[in-house]
Design brief:
With about 325 residues, the protein is an alpha/beta fold. Helix content is about 25%, strand content about 20%. The strands form five sheets. The protein has an eight-stranded mixed beta sheet, sandwiched between helices. Strand 17 (about 260-265), helix 7 (about 280-285) and strand 18 (about 290-295) form a beta-alpha-beta unit. The model has no long low-confidence stretch (mean pLDDT about 95).
């Protein structure tokens, strides 16, 4: 049976043209699909365009607009392809994974490193392969299709600024590979979530990422207190936080969470994740109320998940329950 796919065009490099001041989004979704007439042989499709922006300007309110565009049309289509800029695609893919959970229909994000009109563009292949993947009966949930890889929406990270294989799957295997017109899956497809698709429409944007650096003043927490409800702190190594200056870090961090704010600890090392129990400099934070552990999640997914969880509740117990729930392969369950 021929599939019906909705393309959600949002701008990005794939839609950009040179305007004399640098590349900027200009092409519409209709114009983009005109460059790849082969997709008409795969399926029927319609196009909506909620925005046409450089993804540097993509904000949480725009994630909600994309999710709402899909929610309004969810029953009418077999799958969805979101055309998006690469710079913040990993954030949007993670956000959609939390805003649209357990989808038995695929929600695919793609884009390109070079504009569609560029004679050496990667845009045509990425768009075609994304439509191919969206049409496959075994595809489901939110993912990124880029450079021949299919990556779970919570595991994508932009690793390269210029190469066609811009994205990696962080701390988790790729869902599949796309080779020309074939989808190669590593194993049996994951079962669709029970209870059907679940949509959310609330985010708390007051989340800040703080990268720990040598000699950083822990007084930064006092500066952030007026503007943010949660801090995601990228610690050293597997979870190291300095103990010098008579425990000033510990006091600042405990004061932050004891005041009812949220702290998420992760590592600035890209691969393999956090374990606060290994070194003495991390153990004091292992069980303190209000401190959440990021495990092997990407910072992009942690930002989106924390915004989503805080958008659902301010109760610390419920917040922790939502945070540690495994959603779209976003984290390995803790022992």
């Amino acid at each position: 049976m021929r599939k019906n796919i909705l393309i959600v065009a949002t701008g990005g490099t794939i839609a950009s043209m040179e305007d004399g001041r640098g590349l900027a989004p200009a092409l519409t979704g209709e114009e983009l699909t005109g460059y790849v007439p082969e997709i008409a042989g795969l399926c029927d499709f319609d196009i909506v365009q909620p925005m046409n922006i450089d993804s540097t300007n993509m904000r949480p309110r725009d994630w909600l607009r994309i999710a709402e565009a899909i929610r309004q049309r969810y029953d009418a289509y077999d799958g969805f392809v979101v055309l998006h800029g690469t710079d913040t695609m990993a954030y949007t893919a993670a956000a959609l994974s939390y805003l649209i959970q357990g989808s038995p229909k695929p929600i695919v994000l793609t884009g390109s490193q070079r504009p569609m009109a560029n004679p050496f563009t990667d845009a045509k292949v990425n768009l075609y392969q994304s439509m191919l993947y969206a049409c496959d009966d075994a595809s489901r949930d939110v993912c990124v299709v880029f450079g021949g890889q299919v990556i779970a929406g919570t595991r994508a990270r932009k690793q390269r600024t210029m190469s066609d294989n811009a994205f990696i799957s962080l701390n988790f295997p790729a869902v599949a590979l796309v080779r020309n017109k074939r989808i190669v899956r590593a194993g049996m497809p994951a079962p669709a979530g029970s209870g059907g698709v679940r949509f959310s429409d609330a985010l708390n944007e007051r989340v800040f990422v703080l990268k720990l650096t040598p000699e950083m003043d822990p007084g930064i927490f006092d500066v952030l207190a007026g503007s943010y409800d949660a801090v995601i702190m990228e610690t050293f190594g597997i979870g190291g936080i300095p103990e010098y200056d008579n425990g000033s870090y510990k006091r600042a961090i405990f004061d932050w969470v004891d005041a009812g704010r949220t702290l998420v600890l992760t590592t600035q090392v890209p691969e393999e994740g956090l374990d606060l129990g290994v070194y003495e400099v991390g153990r004091d934070y292992l069980e303190h109320p209000g401190i959440l552990r990021g495990g092997d999640m990407s910072t992009e997914a942690l930002v989106a998940k924390t915004m989503w969880a805080l958008g659902q509740t301010s109760d610390p117990g419920r917040l922790a329950q939502l945070f540690y729930q495994v959603i779209n392969c976003d984290r390995l369950p803790e022992d």
